[in-house]
Amino acid sequence: MATLADTYSVYIKESLDGRLIIRKKTTKHVSPRVEASKERVARTKPGAIAERMCIDAGYAVEKRVYKPGEGYITKKVCPMRHFRRFLREAMARAHGKA
Question: Has this prediction a pTM greater than 0.70?
Fold first, then answer.
């Protein structure tokens, strides 16, 4: 049997002078602008773009990784320190800032 705690979320919001906020758990907490941003990221797949850019730039290293159904394979992998830089560029392109 569901209780009030399963249906409602209650918290104190400091920016409203400590008032209690009571929300149904089904209430959307995301603005339309944020939803549009998430949709752009899902559509453009900046992680895959960043990995491809890193490999093309020559920073990738070969590593043995496990792939289900195939076993261990040798694959080019981008080190995280380089991947972050390329991901930043890909995210900027996804959001139209580049």
Answer: no
How many Å separate Cα 11 from the centre of its chain? 26
Per residue in 36-91, pLDDT (tens digit) is 988 999 999 999 999 999 999 999 999 999 999 999 999 999 999 999 999 999 99
- Helix H or strand E encompassing 74: strand 71-77
Q: How wide is the angle at C-alpha 56 spanned by C-alphas 70 and 69, nearest 5°?
A: 5
Domain boundaries, the chain: 4-94
Cβ neighbourhood burial of 50 (10 Å; 0-12, 13-18, 19+): buried
Q: Are 26 and 46 in contact (CB under 8 A)?
A: no
- Here the tokens at position 28 are 């959307």
Q: What is the DSSP string of 8-56?
A: EEEEEEGGGTTEEEEEETTS--S-HHHHHHHHHHHHH-HHHHHHHHHHH
